[in-house]
Amino acid sequence: MPSTALYRPLESNGTRPLQTSTLRTSSYAGSKGRSFWPKTASSRRLFVCALILMTLLVYAVWCAVINNSDDSRGGGYGSTTAQATSLPPQQGENKNGSHQPAIENEGFIVAKVAPLMLEKLKLRAADDPFNRYSTSSSLSYSSPSLSSSTHTASIKTNSSASARDMLSSSNLLDNKLANESPSTLCTELFNDTRLYIQDRPRQEWANLSTIYFVTPTYPRREQVPELTRLAYTLMHVPRLHWIVANDHNGCNPYLDTLLNRFGIPYTHLASPMPQRYHKAESKPRGVANRRAAMQWLRQHNITTGVLYFGDDDNTYDLKLFSEIRDTKHVSMFPVGLIANYGISGPVVRKGKVIGFLDSWVAGRRWPVDMAGFAVSLAYMAERPNATMPYKPGYEEDYFLRSIGLTLEMIEPKGNNCTEILVWHTQTKNHERTMVKLNHEYLDDRSNLGALFKALTDMGVSGASDSEGQKAIISKNGKAKALGYFLS
Fold first, then answer.
1. Cα–Cα distance measured from residue 198 to residue 210, given in angstroms and rounded to the nearest whole number
2. pLDDT tens, residue by residue, 50-68
3. Which of 286, 308, 309, 384 minimizes the number of CB atoms within 10 Å of its CB?
């Protein structure tokens, strides 16, 4: 039997003998340490609650120190968060802007801790393809030429503030991506200089609603040819404003000259993709461009007309524009040459959309192509938080979710979605090439100087003294060096 106080035999007087082992010494030391622990259950509960409150207070003070340090740095994402969490003068700071030393109520903790929690939530949402952690957001783009609207959110400092009030401050957190890639207004033309459209004077179309045709594009060899081909389609469409958003850090003067040539009212924006996505395996192409276009519409308070996203490499039937012009909420129609089925679009029964035909569902509520729907700007104005996520493959789905679309609201076009009015054609892309051509031959002695300058401006090819395939000139089937003809 173990030699412990519990099992030691009793002495003749009824007491147990003393034990002087090391176990006794250890037990004695433990009992001395336990003397500080509350004796009763109620006091222990109070002690635990006090400990938790002290931990929360330390965390709140740490958060306040972090926010104040971000304020002192200024600019970037820290200043955006600080703006979102600034308290009204009567609660968080004096009228002169100095912070009060005392915390007036427990709502101070909510105002300081909530934005940091939301920041972590947004960072997780950026990498989540199913948008499980995303919160409602609005767009904000800074531009030296466009006065960006300032989005402000007040966080309730009452301790009974609801989760919805806390999540509403996440609108400001979307500014992080906008600040990484601010859009720039390059040029605009609001006057329609076309005299005739579809063999009719321009004035005869004045009563039609305007279609805002948003085209995301990016620098490549095929950019100018594809924009030119698309422009000659749009030249036949009355009452249309073309928003060309280029995925480039600055304005491209050649695009300005090109767009101005067609006489179509247009807006040229430089809207680069955020830097964080440049090394992604699957890049969200066109998202920053479309977001910049939507922000342009908001900044100009345009709440009438129709919004349509049209890529520069698609093929459009002119009937499409007359079909979507009277869109009340959201109109939809089939798009040809999509994935394995060769088609993507709504399934219509008795004039109502009942589902969708698309070979890639992937959990999307609205499995449609970007060119397969149009949105009324009057309806979209009722959804100021409409946005498009940086999630490849889910851009259309979550944009349509953000505007509160329901199946009953969809207006099928194209003869109950039996006609294909837009085709997802794609041009094979090639890398920009260099031609080995001595610059002494690029003067005004021939057309080569002006020709290669235009090719360089368009991003098609360029001339170099040391790189690329050597340039030759042929005559009567025989190749000669440039010096033979141009010396």
1. 16
2. 889 889 888 888 777 665 5
3. 384
The three-class DSSP label of residue 230 is helix
Q: What is the mean pLDDT of residues 41-53?
A: 84
User: For 141-151, what is each residue's pLDDT tens digit?
Assistant: 333 333 333 33
Active-site amino acid positions: 396
Q: Which are the contacts of 95, defined by CB distance < 8 A and separation ≥ 6?
A: 89
The span from the CA of 84 to the CA of 171, in Å, is 9
Backbone angles phi, psi at 350, to 5 degrees: 55, 40
Phi, psi (5° rounding) for residue 159? -65, -15
> Hey, is 372 helix, strand or coil?
helix
In three-state secondary structure terms, 62 is: helix
Q: Output DSSP code: residue 407.
A: G
pTM to 2 decimals?
0.63
Q: How far is CA 82 from the centre of its chain?
A: 22
CB 147 within 8 A of CB 183: no
Write down the number of H helices and E strands in the chain: 16, 20
Cα 248 to Cα 12: distance, rounded to the nearest angstrom: 99
